[in-house]
Specification:
Structural class: alpha/beta
Radius of gyration: 22 Å
Helix content: 25-40%
Number of domains: 2
Strand order of the largest sheet: 1-9-8-5-4-2-3
Strand content: 15-25%
Low-confidence stretches: none
Largest sheet: 7 strands, mixed
Distance between the termini: 16 Å
CATH superfamily of the largest domain: Type I PLP-dependent aspartate aminotransferase-like (Major domain)
CATH topology of the largest domain: Aspartate Aminotransferase, domain 2
Shape: globular
CATH class of the largest domain: Alpha Beta
Order of helices and strands: HHEHEHEEHEEEEEHEEHHEEEHEHHEH
Oligomer: single chain
Number of strands: 16
Length: 414
């Protein structure tokens, strides 16, 4: 350990090269991928690894159906189409999420309607959903951000009273549990990502899960290349979709299926590291780790670090304090990032009058939708006061977490 802060020309507390990247690749992963070349199958859901992954993930989530796709955004688009979202419909989602949550709604020619987030979980605030419902609302999209499950029971109850579908975005929540049950079978339909950074990865790809025969059939048609007629609640429904050719490829499926065997082990290691960090940071004024509600078993896709200048320097602004601590941590070798520096409704896509914000194709005669960032103060505050620590995942371990804690103490004492 360094005797003096790196900012004072000491050695960094976290030496260069100590933080390992995600995901850990084992010989079993290599063998699984290489075995694909011994077959005649390189793509489609019906290839051995792809169909095996679908069956294994359906079993893991406790659902009847799973569809493998070529991406997480594509999976969410398929889920929305299956849920009956049509051009001009409105879909309610949190103001803070990754851009893909809104992008999938736009792909469906529907209208994103944002509501603010819960100040402790950073997921959608269920108490704000009902006031956002209009005659044009078709679905609610809770997002399990950072691997933290949204509070689904009140969301499902509200949606049920209003006859709305619940399509949850679980791109960052593979293996997360809500009240003891795995995310993936708790709503009408769920979308996952298999991007390289996700807890379960194939490099890229996505998964759609549901217990509904009808929704599964329509989602598959959206991801494929044709229309389909299904029976739902005793009535026939014909879905006429373009067919977006979201078909997967077998190399990705092989890697994800191999990684699935270690998902629970890896997630447990993430929780142990995250819990340790949070416990230690409670003793250091100026910062805090994430809050976990009683209902949730999160998987910490990202470890959320909160900055609290009022605990150490009442005169410093949030921006000044955050910048100073960030610079100090980087000097100590701590890898810190912020992957999204503005909430979704504040993005140019919704604000630039030269583009979609002026005459978006989804209006279809609907009244103008306001995307005023000031309508979402909690989400705005989250962006201003938080960042993420890299490396809170295997193959990193407690030795790195100890160095992170020492670095935080050193920087805030400097």
């Amino acid at each position: 350990m360094a005797d003096t802060p790196a900012t004072n020309e000491g050695s960094p507390i976290v030496p260069e090269g100590m933080v390992k990247s995600w995901p850990p690749i084992t010989q079993a992963d290599v063998n699984a991928v290489m075995s694909v070349f011994d077959t005649d199958h390189l793509h489609t859901r019906w290839a051995p690894k792809a169909s095996g992954l679908e069956a294994a993930w359906a079993e893991y989530c406790g659902v009847e159906h799973c569809i493998l796709t070529n991406g997480g955004t594509q999976s969410l688009h398929m889920a929305l189409m299956a849920a009956g979202v049509e051009p001009g419909d409105e879909v309610i989602l949190p103001a803070f999420s990754y851009w893909s949550s809104a992008a999938a709604i736009i792909h469906a020619n529907a209208v994103p309607i944002f509501v603010d987030i819960d100040p402790r979980t950073f997921c959608i605030d269920p108490a704000l959903i009902e006031n956002a419902i209009t005659e044009r609302t078709a679905a609610v999209m809770p997002v399990h951000i950072h691997g933290m499950p949204a509070d689904l029971d009140p969301i499902v109850e509200i949606a049920g009273r209003h006859g709305l579908a619940v399509v949850d975005d679980a791109a960052q929540a593979q293996g997360a549990r809500y009240k003891g049950r795995p995310v993936g079978g708790l709503t009408d339909i769920t979308a996952f990502s298999l991007n390289r950074l996700k807890n379960l990865t194939g490099g890229e790809g996505g998964l759609v899960t549901t217990n509904s025969d009808a929704l599964n059939t329509i989602a598959a048609a959206t991801g494929g290349m044709g229309s389909v007629t299904v029976e739902e609640d005793g009535e026939q429904r014909t879905f006429f979709g373009h067919g977006y050719n979201y078909r997967p490829q077998e190399l990705m499926a092989a890697l994800a299926l191999s990684q699935l065997a270690r998902l629970d082990e890896y997630n447990q290691q993430r929780r142990e590291m995250a819990d340790y960090l949070t416990e230690q940071l409670e003793e250091i004024p100026g910062v805090a780790g994430p809050h976990t509600p009683d209902y949730a078993e999160p998987v910490h896709f990202m470890y959320v670090l909160e900055f609290r200048p009022d605990e150490v320097d009442g005169d410093a602004s949030m921006a000044e304090f955050k910048s100073a601590v960030w610079e100090g941590l980087e000097a100590e070798g701590v890898q810190i990032l912020q992957w999204q520096r503005e909430i979704i409704p504040a993005m140019n896509f919704f604000q630039d009058e030269r583009g979609y914000a002026a005459t978006p194709p989804w209006r279809f005669g609907a009244s103008t939708v306001s995307y005023d960032p000031d309508d979402y103060p909690v989400a705005q505050q989250f962006v201003a006061s938080h960042a993420y620590l890299r490396g809170v995942f295997p193959p990193n371990g407690m030795d790195l977490m100890d160095r992170y804690v020492t670095a935080v103490r050193t920087v805030l004492a400097d």
